[in-house]
Amino acid sequence: MATVAPIITFKAGICDFDISPKPTPGYIYLYEGQDDELVHFCWRPRSASLRDPELDLVMVPSDGSFKPYQTSQGDATSRKSPTNGRIFVLKFQSSSARHLFWLQSKTQHAQGDLGYFSPRDLKLGEIVDQLLQGEQVNVQDELNNVPSGQGGQDDDDGSGNRMEGVRRESQGATAENLASGDPFIGDPSNEGEESREGGADGGRA
């Protein structure tokens, strides 16, 4: 069986198409296939092995992109998500297919804002996107260059991966909604175009 040597691994869960989060603790990881020499974009539950991902997509260079979720009215440079969770979207030039993921590491916002994209979060997305374009990336160097206090090594889950329940900010998330664990609400059709196991996980974030 071919060896899987991830280039980067970080904690993330998957979302349904309506932006409803699934609570399963998971990992996103990318590796280069030994046979096809193409980047594989994978997601697996943390209970599964590297060789048994639930999602394994062979990525043609420049076909895919990995960006923070933004609505068509959103500011693509904003660090604030239009939901109260940190969502990334994997999209393709060759099809209308897309996959949505929510970051499961602890928010780095000083007041605990769950929708805040920290420099570390944005750097993770940037690294993945660069790898999908076929670029060579020194993952560890890139993570080490994240500003102090927002470091790439902090991947603590915080509250045991408990999904807080995420709503579109425009619909008015309240403390009561969050406490009830309601799924967050969103519509990907409104999305703008701009929008370690034993050390085996490569550049772990």
How would you explain this protein's 3D organization?
This protein is of the alpha+beta class. It has three helices and eight strands, in the order βββββββαααβ. The chain has helices at 119-132, 139-144, 175-180, and strands at residues 8-15, 26-32, 39-45, 55-59, 64-68, 87-92, 98-103, 203-204. Strands 1, 2, 3, 4, 5, 6, 7 and 8 form an eight-stranded mixed beta sheet that branches. A hairpin with a 5-residue loop joins β6 (87-92) and β7. Residues 150-201 have low confidence and may be disordered.
Termini gap: 26 Å
Radius of gyration: 16 Å
What is the chain-wise order of helices and strands?
A: EEEEEEEHHHE
Give the overall silhouette.
globular
Largest beta-sheet characterization: 8 strands, mixed
Spans of at least 5 consecutive residues whose pLDDT stays below 50 are 150-201
Number of helices: 3
Helix content: 10-25%
Give me the count of strands. Answer: 8
